[in-house]
Amino acid sequence: MKKFVLLLVLFLAGFAWDCRDNSNNITSSVVDTSIDDPYSTPHIIWTDPLAGAVGPNIMSPGNVVKIRFDKLMDSKSVVRAVTLSPSSEWVYIDTTRSGPVEGTTFDFPLTPEPNYLPIVMDAKLDARFPPWYVIQYPYFKVGRTYMISVAASASDIFGNTLEVPDSFSFTPEPYFRVTDMTPLDNDTAISPLASIAVRFNALIDTASVRNALSLLPTVNGTSSSYYSSWGFYWMPSPMFAPETQYTVTIGTQAKDVDGHQLHAPFSFSFTTSPYAVTGSNPNGSGVSRNATIGIYCNFIVDSASAVTAFHSVPPIAGTLQVSGTAFYVSPSSSLSSQTTYTITISNSLKGTNGFAVKSPYSFSFTTGN
Fold first, then answer.
1. Which of 8, 33, 145, 331 could hold 318 in an S-S bridge, CB 3.0 to 4.6 Å?
2. What is the pLDDT of residues 156-182, one digit of tens each?
């Protein structure tokens, strides 16, 4: 009997030892419920966007759909199993960039069709981003719900497939809206010559958007659409007043080409900078005695005021010519040699709309032999 008990104890001890790995953890063959379990069925445990999500702003950067499983998955089977519907709405899954982030999570970038506005550059709107910052427009239809389907053929690394097909839907752009603008809301020190740019999430009906635009205080201007009518520019005529807050409003009568009206009135404000002289030449020493003197401003210069605002010590005889935001004085005879000239532009200098510079401006240069 004692011998039997001893054999039984040795047998159980050996069994327990076999059920442990080198790190003294229980092996997967006994109680394994891990991501590399060779027997369990894989399931989807998380998606981005979440199932039923309604935008705007529900998409990850780069408009990437993410799917996470509870198992280590076979990459090819997952990529082949995932589809997007509807399949004819200008957006598709870029399978060349689809794949695992790690063994359980997969990225599926949504990209516009190559023959329709795949990449656009907007120098005005994107000036605040790094140079050559690329904006892509996946053309999500306004009000359209999209569905990602995962076929049951998606398998883990052991060949276990999903029990049933799975799917989830999301609505990226539930309504027609403004997505970006310049100047930004509450921007200050905006150039009096700046243009207004507004971008939408759909192709615009240009006539309705133009009629929906209002600006307070009122300024004359012209608008034009751009990039196949994704948005528009508005240019003041001739320019904005200095140190003035303007409020831009786009009313709900604005529509996209499919007839969706703007979800709600959209407004933003900005404040212009003072009228000022922003630069001049020549400067320094050794300046040519026949040099033309240039004055540069951030507004369109009134010719008559430029004549009265220009002063030089010692005096310079010559002709003054205005060209938009600059004016030039060309001496009628050579300047004195090795002489320092001090130029002052008084605050009687005005723009063509009658507003004057806020502060006088002066600079000096010294002629050569």
1. 331
2. 999 999 999 999 999 999 999 998 899
3-class state of residue 321 by DSSP? strand
DSSP state of 34: S
- Choose among 273, 268, 319: nearest CA to 293: 319
Report the chain's mean pLDDT, rounded to a whole number.
Answer: 85
Q: What pLDDT score was predicted for residue 133?
A: 39
pTM, two decimal places: 0.77
Structure tokens at 325: 């935001």
281-290: burial string, b at 16+ Cβ within 10 Å, e else? ebeeeebeee
Helical residues (DSSP H) of 65-188, grouped into ranges: 75-81
Tokens coding 1 = 């009997």
In the numeric block, the tokens 């009122």 are attached to: 218
Domains of the chain in start order, with CATH, are 44-171 (2.60.40.1220), 178-272 (2.60.40.3710), 277-367 (2.60.40.3710)
Looking at the chain, how many residues does it have?
Answer: 369
